[in-house]
Design a protein that fits this description.
This protein has nine helices and eight strands. It has 257 residues and is of the alpha/beta class. The chain has one domain: Rossmann fold (3-Layer(aba) Sandwich), CATH 3.40.50. Strands 1, 2, 3, 4, 5, 6, 7 and 8 form an eight-stranded mixed sheet that branches.
Length: 257
């Protein structure tokens, strides 16, 4: 496809991919939190089959590969992220433990009851929390685990500015008890739920973006789409610092009944 024929939408998509490819993680999280969630999963052996859905460049997959027995398949829609994922795996000599493939989370090619564990950090919102839990369940063995992170409200009520921002970005955002009830309703025992520590946002997600934003604006000087995209990211960051008492990411871990 040549450049002239690209729609604004496709250009956006490429810009966003490029921006996030410079980051170790494409969503809030940290090695400590990944390991904490993994500590609730007790069915893994060296033969375990694990899927990391919406794996990005593999920040959390590397931590899993270093600490969990079994083989991890990372799936992401964006080929650039999967290239980086597999490059990262090779550079850490983890290529036998984690393999990235391009694919979509709404059209997974696993067999029924194939998986011991489904992992997904900061990505299930792309299909929707409830839909993802329901649709992915068939790929798990009975007694298999699912561990996902999802943006959630901490309180029943919150200021209108932050309510409006998130309801526009992700209308399925809900309170923790409602998310847990959805997990139970989808056929899992809710094994554990915990809020990701603030440094998952500040230290691991927002801080590394500062340098990327600067370089990005220099590279795309005068490009309105790039400028608007960076402005949006900065706005989201400011809102987080202002309203972090009201929302955050939450790990939900369930076991298939
Ligand atoms: N798990 C990573 C990335 C989270 S960002 C981390 O925590 O760092 C969300 C990821 O979901 C992105 O990498 C994006 O490319 C991927 N994604 C978006 N829609 C998808 C889809 N339909 N199928 C698979 N992956 C998708």
């Amino acid at each position: 496809m040549d450049h002239e024929n690209k729609s604004i939408h496709e250009f956006d998509f490429q810009l966003i991919c490029e921006y996030f490819s410079h980051l170790e993680r494409q969503g809030p999280g940290s090695p400590d939190v990944t390991l904490k969630a993994l500590s609730f999963v007790d069915n893994l052996t060296e033969h375990a089959a694990i899927a990391d859905i919406g794996c990005g460049t593999g920040g959390q997959t590397i931590v899993l590969a270093q600490h969990a027995p079994g083989m991890i398949t990372g799936i992401d829609l964006f080929p650039l992220f999967i290239d980086l994922f597999n490059r990262n795996a090779r550079s850490l000599n983890l290529q036998e433990k984690m393999k990235g493939v391009v694919g979509s989370m709404d059209n997974l090619s696993f067999h029924e009851e194939e998986l011991d564990l489904i992992w997904s950090e900061g990505a299930i919102y792309n299909i929707g929390f409830e839909k993802g839990l329901n649709e992915w369940r068939k790929f798990l063995k009975t007694g298999g685990y699912i561990a996902v992170t999802e943006a959630s409200w901490f309180t029943e009520k919150r200021p209108v500015e932050i309510e409006d921002f998130w309801m526009d970005a992700y209308p399925e955002m809900d309170t923790i008890p409602n998310k847990v009830a959805q997990m139970q309703g989808a056929g899992y025992i809710p094994v554990a739920t915990f809020i990701l520590s603030e440094n998952c946002w500040t230290e691991y997600f927002y801080a590394p973006q500062k340098a990327v934003q600067k370089a990005f604006l220099e590279k795309y000087a005068g490009n309105k789409t790039a400028e608007q995209f960076v402005a949006y990211q900065r706005h989201e960051t400011q809102l987080y610092f202002k309203y972090k008492a009201y929302y955050g990411y939450v790990f939900y871990i369930g076991r298939k009944i």
